[in-house]
Amino acid sequence: MPARWLRHQGVITEVTKASPVRRAWIAFALLAGCVPSQSAVFGPVDRDVEKRLGIGVSDGKTTAAIDALLAQPIDLDAAVRIALARNRRLQAAFDELGIAASEVADATVLPPLSIDADYKWGVSSRDSEVEVSAVQDVLDLLQLGQRRGIANAQLRGARARAVGATVELAAKVESAYYDLVAAIQERELVQTALDAAVASADLVERQHAAGNTTDLALAREQEQRERARIEVARADQLIAERRSHLGALLGLAESKWTVAGRLPEPPAKEPQLADLDDAAVSASLDLSALRADADAASARHRYAMVRTFVPELGVGVSTARREDTGWEVGPAVRLGIPLFNQQQGPRARARAEKRRAQNQAAATTTELRASAATTRSRVQQAYAEVRHLIDVVLPLRKRVLDETVLQYNAMNASPFELLIARREMTDVGRQYIEALRRYWGAMTEATALRRGGHAMKDSEP
After folding, report:
1. How remote is the C-alpha of 182 from its chain's centroid?
2. The model scores a pTM over 0.70
C-alpha cells in the first residue's frame, strides 16, 4: 500500500501497513494536544448570536466598517453593531472561550514519559548493574472520554456565557440609546419652554416699566424664566451623562459621534407578553451555562471515582545490564495503591459543585419568572400611559391651547393666559416623552428575556 504522509505540528509521520492498535496510537498522537480551531470554538457562538440578535458578532468588525457607521448619525442598529465590535468587556468574555478551548486540548494530552535509571556497583566490576525503565502513565488515556467530557461541558458553559454577554450588551445599548434620544427630545421641549418663559418675562418687564402691572406679576414671571434656565441646564447635563454612558458601551472614547432618529411611536395594539415567563426560561443562557456546569461537575465526580481505586497506572519497558549476563529486557508496570489519598477532596468538591449548579439553576428559574412578571407589568403600565396621553391627554391639551389662541385673537384672553397654555402643552409633551422612554425601556427588557438574557434594573442616569 502506498505510504501516506500526515503532517502534525511540523512533524511528518509515515503511515504504512500497520496493525489497528498501531493506527490507533498514531491517530491519538496526531490528535493529542490539538487546540480546537477558531471556527470550531467561535462558529457556534456567532451562529447563536445571529439567531438571537439578527447580527453576527463578526459583522462589521473592521476599522473601515466602524468608520463608515460613525461617519453619519448612529441609529439603533448601528449602535448595536459598533458595540459588538468595540466593547472590550465583551471581547474579554469571548477570551474565556479560548481558555475553555485550551482545556479541551489539555484533555487529550498524556502525562510525560517517566524514565528511571539505577546504577548499582559491588565489590568487583562484575557485580555492577545498570537498570533503565521507561513507563508511561496510561490511566489518562483510559479516562480520555471522561476528561474530554469535562472539557467539552466547560466549553459549552463558556459558549453560553459568551452569547449571554452579547445579548446583555445589546440590551444595554438599546436601552441607553433610547435614553439618550429621549433626553435630546426633552431638551428641545425644555428649550421651547424657556423661550416662552423669556418672552413672557420680557413682556411683563415692559408692562411693569410702563406701570401697567404689579411687582408680584413681574417677580412671578422672572422666577418662571430663571427656573426654565435651570431646566435647560439640567437637560444638557442629562444628555452629557447619557451620551457618556452609551459611548462607554460602544467602546467610543472620542466625542465626534451623534445619534439619529427619535423615539418610535408605540404600536397600535398592546404587545402580547402572556408567554414571556415560559419564553424567558426556555431561552435562558444562564440556565444553559448552569446545566453545562452541572454536567462538568458530574463528569469530574466520575473521573475522581476511578482514581479512588486506581490512582496511577503505567506501562512501559524495563532493561537491565549485568556484566555477566549482558542486557535483559522485559515489561514494566506501575500501579498506584490508594492507601491515604482516595480522592475524598475531589469527589466532595465535584458533588458540591453539582449541587451548587442545580441550586443556582432553580434560583435562576424563579428569578427569571419573577423578572418576566415585573417586565410584563412595566410594559403594560407604560403602554397604557402612553396610549392615554396620545388618545386623551394630548388632544385635550391641544384643544385648550387652540381655544386659548382663539380667545386671545378675540381679545378675550390675555397674553399671559396664552403663554401659560403653551407652557402647559410643553409639560404634557415632556410627560409623553418620559412615558414613551419607559415603554421602550421595558420592551427592551422583554426582548432581552426572549433572547435568553435577564431583565435589567432601571439604573440609567
Report:
1. 25
2. yes
